[in-house]
């Protein structure tokens, strides 16, 4: 998530970014969820004019706008969305363990839409893509949690 130029400055000043989750599940440090604690790592471009930090704008960014960013990004996540994401991670981990156990190199679920628009896009390459369907003799059934 990127909030741009909410305060005065030049270049990348005033930019606040938080890693946006997508369909890839990777270990990250951007957001960590523990039992009673959420840690959010974000990047903040200090408001500046050239090489000089604009102190009043930085104060506004840290003490007013930053809380708005957190409230409008992290705290709008619904409990069921978080639960679904955690369950998906459990399922993907179970699939990874099965791949390793049997020496498989990949897993593509029936119904998957391939290929992607680009290496940085989760969207399909074309809008009328045909869902993947494995040949019956290549199918493997996997039990997953949840």
Protein described:
- The structure is a single chain.
- By secondary structure, this protein is α+β, with helices and mostly antiparallel strands.
- The chain is 28% helix and 11% strand.
- Strands 1-2-5 form a 3-stranded antiparallel sheet, with no helix packed on it. A two-stranded antiparallel sheet has the order 3-4.
Q: Percent range for helical residues?
A: 25-40%
- The rounded Rg comes to 21 Å
Class by SSE composition? alpha+beta
Distance between the termini: 29 Å
Number of helices: 2
- What average pLDDT do the residues reach? 82
Cα shape: elongated
- How much of the sequence lies in strands comes to 5-15%
Biggest β-sheet strands, sense, barrel:
3 strands, antiparallel
How many beta-strand elements? 7
What is the helix/strand order?
Answer: EEEEEEEHH
Biggest sheet: strand arrangement? 1-2-5
Summarize the structure.
The chain has 146 residues and is of the alpha+beta class. It contains two helices and seven strands. The model has no long low-confidence stretch (mean pLDDT 82).
